[in-house]
Amino acid sequence: MSVSLLLVPLALAGAAAVQAAAERKSDGQLICQVQTRMRDVTLLEAALRDTGATVTTSGDSLTAAWAESTATFTRDADGIWAAHVTGVDQAGAVELMTGVDAAYGRRVQQAVLERLRDQAPAAGLRLESESVEQDASVRLVFEVERERA
Known about the structure:
Layout: E1 2-7, H1 10-13, E2 19-24, E3 30-35, H2 41-50, E4 54-58, E5 61-65, E6 70-75, E7 81-86, H3 90-119, E8 125-132, E9 138-144
Antiparallel strand pairs: 1-9, 2-3, 3-7, 4-5, 5-6, 6-7, 8-9
């Protein structure tokens, strides 16, 4: 008997629930706050680097710098990251965070795939095949190994 799993990238599972608000500081600088759905700091750092950002950490915040903009990420009470973006307008901030969200989704998919591959033998499963579809979904087919008497 075999088991087939289809892993769809997080970005395809649903559009990012990006909410943005803009505020202009007294010096005229526009800061856009963008709510995300990201929680894992390691995956967020990797996703930011995937988008070409230089990432620095300081205490409980992350700063990502691109050529034209900067985003400082802080966590809310639920552990979800929010970005405070400068250097772009509100639409640019949403576009930037949508790209980060897509990169984060790919990183989540990779982490889940690694976990499935690593834990399959202990669950009595043997990976028979793996294929990547055009939409970046991954299909894994596991063979259920029979217990030996």
